[in-house]
Write a structure and sequence with these properties.
Keywords: Membrane, Transmembrane, Transmembrane helix, Transport
Organism: Ornithinibacillus sp. 4-3
Structural class: mainly alpha
GO molecular function: transmembrane transporter activity
InterPro entries: MFS, MFS_dom, MFS_Exporter, MFS_trans_sf
GO cellular component, one term: plasma membrane
CATH architecture of the largest domain: Up-down Bundle
Helix content: over 70%
Shape: globular
Amino acid sequence: MQKLKRDKLWTSDFILVILTNFTMALSMYLLIVTMANYATDTFGSSTSMAGLASSIFILGAVFSRLWAGKAIERIGSKKMLMYGIVFSIISISLYFVANNIYFFLLVRVLHGIGMGISTTGAGTIVAQIIPRTRSGEGISYYSMGMVLTTAIGPLIGIFLMENVSYLSLFIFSIIAGIVSLFVAIPLKAPKMEVPEAEEVPVEARKRFRLSNYLEANALPIAFVTLIVSVAYSGILSFITSFSEEVDLVKAGSFYFLVYAITIIISRPFTGKLMDRRGANMVTYPALILFAIGMFLLSQSTTAFLLLLAAGINGLGYGNFQSIAQALAIKLTPNHRLGLANSTYFIFLDIGLGLGPFVFGFVVPYVGFKGLYLILTGVVVIGLVAYHFLYGSKERQLLHRPQ
């Protein structure tokens, strides 16, 4: 009976942190897909400035994660989550008064800071309350909330933008933020206990040490995540333009819906498989599928092929993402889970933010089909990196003392 209690996953706190994460992410994703249009229509911004208005959000998230990962041991994961949500709500309210593009860009950075802090807190809480024996399954369920928002958020955002007004976007976003705050209030997070042998003197904390900002145990899988997320950013940023180029606009509008459905169906199984058989049993097939899906995308000339690529990429990248986060947690001591989460998300954000910037220079020379063919090779590089950084030594890494 004691084992059953220890391995219980679906607690009230687990459900609350999933709902908190979902509503927070919803307030973010409905703006990401609409802010470039808003900047162009409201401020008359150039295409490059409008693109910056959408992606500069990630800059704020990256810098805030560096601070949050370091400070979470001292502040606590629940307080970190609440501070982040409140900061996000205040930032969203500033959209209503942003009257020029530069003030608007500042607000986007501030919103990114709030989201970076809150998601670090939420990710650390979920890592604390998930049993280690069910980390793959737990992270799979937890991150499904984020996956749903990548499908639902853009649909809501585009609908409001086209049928209501830009103002309604900010109203919906701030309501979602307030809902997440109230959902998070009853959430209970375990206290972060630092072993006496691991305590760092105050003087040492004030000096710059890389270990104060990044978790070494999570770095290998975080680096693989950076490579693979660079490839995925090509889909996130250019699938709409690509579908227009190949005259598949209607099919392209369903891309992320099909992508999300395949993840929702597969993740409960892949998470359990990781817990029982190890990450390699999921990650190798996932990255191979992602490479196949990216290649099919580069060759898409029909709606069937485009949506088939969406489903395969959901099975591939969608499952890799949750397994990578679960590994970052599984390989890290309990008292450094905050740093492990922030390390993983920093590298993920860098990949998602760096990719579109670089690809903007590549597309004019190779086109979107050529880009996706190149990104097929990037996924293969990620597969090779995974093998050497983790896959070939999984047994030793998972059974070493922490």
